[in-house]
Amino acid sequence: MLHGxxxxxxxxxxxxxxxxxxxxxxxxxxxxxxxxxxPEYCLSWECYNKVTGRTLNPHxxxxxxxxxxxxxxxxxxxxxxxxxxxxxxAGSIRVPSQFVGxxxxxxxxxxxxxxxxxxxxxDKKFLKYLSIGPMCRYSKDLPTLTHIxxxxxxxxxxxxxxxxxxxxxxxxxxxxxxxxxLSFWNVDELIQQRMLDAASHFKSNGVNVQHLNESxxxxxxxxxxxxxxxxxxICTFFTIEDIPDLLSNCGTSKRxxxxxxxxxxxxxxxxxxxxxxxxxxxxxxxxxxxxxxxxAYIKKGNEIRQKLLKRLGTNGVLFFPTFPxxxxxxxxxxxxxxxxxYAMFFNILGFPSTNVPxxxxxxxxxxxxxxxxxxxQDRNCFAIAxxxxxxxxxxxx
Length: 397
Fold this sequence. Notes:
By secondary structure, the protein is an alpha+beta fold. It has one domain (8-224, 306-392): Amidase signature (AS) enzymes (Alpha-Beta Complex). 34% of the residues lie in helices and 12% in strands. The protein is built from 13 helices and 10 strands. The chain has helices spanning 20-27, 70-77, 94-100, 124-129, 141-149, 155-158, 189-204, 229-237, 258-266, 274-284, 291-312, 341-349, 378-392, and strands spanning 48-49, 53-54, 83-88, 103-106, 131-136, 170-173, 209-211, 316-320, 353-360, 366-373. The strands form 2 sheets. Strands 3-5-4-9-10-8-6-7 form an 8-stranded mixed β-sheet, sandwiched between helices. This is Amidase domain-containing protein. It holds the Pfam family Amidase.
């Protein structure tokens, strides 16, 4: 199948073998239909490229299905496929899943092989942050697909074939990070309300539910400050040294100049998309954050990780936004990049996370939020997703 990753210089390139995850699915009886569309080099949160053009959201054609796994999301959200396989390094499964109203799971880091994925990197941090996972309309498919796709060595830790009851799961919720982050627009009020509705549903059924920090406001040792997760995510992610070089893959011996190509793309003359070039511009400038501050942010991220590991344990989950709003208009994502902090942060931490659909907003566009657990506790996410689907309806076309 085609392996060009939606980039003009790679048009016509085909894979010479199946990725490991595809081999596993085919061995279990799955029938691949196609390689769906992505943004160039999977480097955007909307699905546009110069090879196949623009992918549309099945709920409203003037909106994006998100990215990078936007083609998979659009097909599955429209009911055109039984399930999909996406990749997620900064929300690229979960954001599209919210935009089209399906379930999308970013698994625990490392449990599913990324061998055969492009782009790839020799940097171990890249391979840690990148996950491959299932996208589907029905929550009951999540544990089965994750079991098939995951490396057998992790099956005993994941315990996906063992029953779990939602009453045994502790639920924490946080409806927004903070207004003190670089993020300059708030989580939609209806998304926040739907998170509270879900929390209330579980609480009324005897589940232990509490705000992430309400009981720890006066304890610095226990309080989990999420106000700078955008800065933490950017600084940590951009320590990756070996990233695929978009501008060297152009059929010539000379590497093209990033800033020239960025200007040309804004004028419509570049062979590369503006979104992909903008990513490389951010990487080259460390997201416009000084190296001194970078080290402090990375340290803070490690501290938050340890606190969340302790809080969630083996039987806890966190309700947290997937993205601050429903599906964006086409070409709007570059002005709202800060919104990906909600999903991207958990790539950095390596925690499993599932987007769960929660109906539609006043624009008739799907909304949802993510259910997060500690590493190797993916089944907690699935159990909560099943109950939310039963209570609130799940996927709606």
